[in-house]
Amino acid sequence: MSGSQLWVDVDDYFTSHLSPDDEALRAALRDSETAGLPPIAVTAAQGKLLHLLALTQGARHVLEIGTLGGYSTIWLGRALPEDGRLVTLEYNAKHADVAVRNISRAGLERIVEVRVGPALESLPKLADENPAPFDLVFIDADKANNRRYVEWALKLTRAGSLIILDNVVREGRVADARSTEPDVVGTRAALELIASHPRLSGTAIQTVGLKGYDGFALARVQD
Fold it and tell me: Are 100 and 93 spatial neighbours (Cβ–Cβ below 8 Å)?
């Protein structure tokens, strides 16, 4: 058995026991595929991790940068109380339309707000509204702007908030300091910001599984 097939088998085992899906989650993935969205949503195990992190935070307000078809949004939204709020930002209007339908099917339309447009335009507008600080921020958008997304996350959170940055391994390319690829440069810049900023304490974890070789960074906002 190849290493990659073993990763998939173990992921399937974990998912079947610890992160079983339901019709709303299955439909979100199915409708995203039918609509031609790229197959880059988080896995069920990763979605459950986001859900548990939000629960552990006692999160009431969540910000997601990068909605895609709303699969991760559903996992996060289900962790919030009835009066919670999740704002999710999506660049692509077609993706946002699919996400809105998926979120509504999951019964989360009163909690979740999908905002369409470039995140770097939506974030200043959101800040101008002076929202309650977000307890958790999940960043899963274009990697070239990762540092700027982390900077905005800092502005919109509080001491004790969590910032999660997805897809940081870039198939190992993140370790190449000579790389000029925008996704690598942006991701390295975000990680260097987490490492150097006095209000952030973070780490990064490599993962294997259904989506191959990847990983995420996790940072806590300090006082």
Answer: no
Interatomic CA distance for residues 136 and 4, integer angstroms: 31
CA 46 to chain CA centroid, Å, is: 9
* Spatial separation of the C-alpha atoms in residues 45 and 34, rounded to whole Å: 22
State pTM to two decimals.
Answer: 0.97
Dist. CA 72–CA 51, nearest whole Å: 9
Residues 112, 116, 118, 124: is their CA dihedral positive or negative? negative
* Residues forming a β-bridge with 116: 90
Going across the sheet that includes 85-90, the strands are 112-116, 85-90, 61-65, 134-139, 157-166, 212-221, 200-209
Structure tokens at 52: 């548990």
Name 192's Cβ contacts closer than 8 Å, sequence gap at least 6: 147
pLDDT tens string 123-171: 999 999 999 999 999 999 999 999 999 999 999 999 999 999 999 999 9
- Bridge partner residues of 114 (DSSP): 88
β-pair partners for 170: none
Residue 52 contacts residue 76 (beta carbons within 8 Å) = no
Residue 85 CA to chain centroid, in angstroms? 16
Tell me how far CA of residue 122 lies from CA of 100, 116, 126, 135, in angstroms.
Answer: 17, 8, 6, 19
> Tokens 């973070």 — which residue?
202
Residues of the chain short of pLDDT 70, as ranges, are 1-2
pLDDT in the model for residue 2: 63
Residue of 166, 169, 175, 85 lying closest to 129 (CA atoms) = 85
pLDDT at 115 (0 to 100): 98
